[in-house]
Amino acid sequence: MVKSTITKLPASILVVDDDSQIRRAFRTILASQGCKVIEARDCEEAIEEVKASCPDLVLLDINMPGTDGIETCRRIREFSDIAVIMVTVRAEEKDKVAALDAGANDYIVKPFGTPELLARIRAVARRAPAMEGTMPAFNSQDLSIDFERRRVVSHGQPVHLTPTEFDLLKYLVSNQGKLVPYSNFLRLLWGPEHADDRELLWFFIGQLRKKIEPHPEQPRYIHTEPSVGYRFDPDHAMATKART
User: Residue 21's domain is classified under what CATH number?
Assistant: First the structure.
């Protein structure tokens, strides 16, 4: 018998939307899959439920009256690394970038079908076990990473990374010196559904470089192998400098 490799859905999911009909639709879909569904109508209720109920994942609508989903996600990120999927009718790149930059793990654009919704939830849930495990701290002249405490210091200053940025950095460092193909990052961090979504990866690599590189346009740590992938290799940069 072949063992199933399909990731189970999270046990509990918080649905944040000001529309009761949409919340009801999500509840019907997710409850049919065995999920416990918690509901919130706005930012304040969402914050309260994340703190009180500790759900495994948040489905967060962007367009809400008052405090929108982008700002709600930022506020959640101030105290929690919970997985967040933004739900939006906005399909423009700038809106997706805003959602990811606020700390969202993924986004889904309305309208969407039940299979896509469940696939994206499974993809985000799949990341958690893939990135578990402690690693020894990384320390260089201007960059320190404490993986156990999830703390990054660059040039003596603390650096705030979103959960996805931190997991991406952890994967890079765990393969230090090795060329990692684009597809490896995408499958591990976002699942096979995103295997060809290189723009998503480029965005996060760009954000990481801005936060940890002394000169993002001439990276010391994260090097691009054109059309192939990325390599975390500070020694490569030092060797290149020594030859020039």
Answer: 3.40.50.2300
